[in-house]
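S.,

As promised, the S-adenosylmethionine run. Input:
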Amino acid sequence: MEWLARVMGARRAIEVGTFTGYSALCLARGLGPQGRLLCLDINEDWTHVARTYWRKAGVADRIALRLGPAATTLATLPQEPGFDLGFIDADKENGRLYYEEVLARLRPGGVLILDNVLWGGKVVERRQHPGDTSLQAICELNDFAAADERVQPAFLPLGDGLLLLRKR
Ligand SMILES: C[S@@+](CC[C@H](N)C(=O)[O-])C[C@H]1O[C@@H](n2cnc3c(N)ncnc32)[C@H](O)[C@@H]1O
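Predicted complex:
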């Protein structure tokens, strides 16, 4: 993700789901000293850990953290294409909502990244896990994104699977 931010020359990014701050740290490094990363998370304890390591890594001044339900925070952001890069990695049941809110705020040519699109491999045997609501939401969003004319998708089978979507 640092590499991607660098090759894109991205300066403004948004992350939905920050946890202890590792992906944010990578993104912030890729954005460079003039970059700005907006992080959304609901958990104060985990993001307290994140803040500690952002400071140690020297990137704290380029990261703004907004605590609260991401759906609520996203609704408060200006309706303008202010981001070059977006990363969605929070509660999967709200994935489609985050997708629409972040995509609406990406510039044309910007990239939206979805994490966990493989869900440990369960996406290929989705009918064997009928009670897994995260899995159902991920499969629906994968299918939707693959057919979404507003974006050009590329799948990276790294980690738990990343879907990269370039906004047309
Ligand atoms: C998988 S972790 C993020 C990991 C992080 N992106 C990384 O790679 O280092 C998911 C995060 O989503 C956050 N989250 C879950 N539901 C949320 C919600 N409704 N609004 C905002 N954040 C939420 C959790 O608190 C958790 O920190």
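DSSP finds six helices and seven strands in the chain. The first helix runs from residue 2 to 8.

- D.
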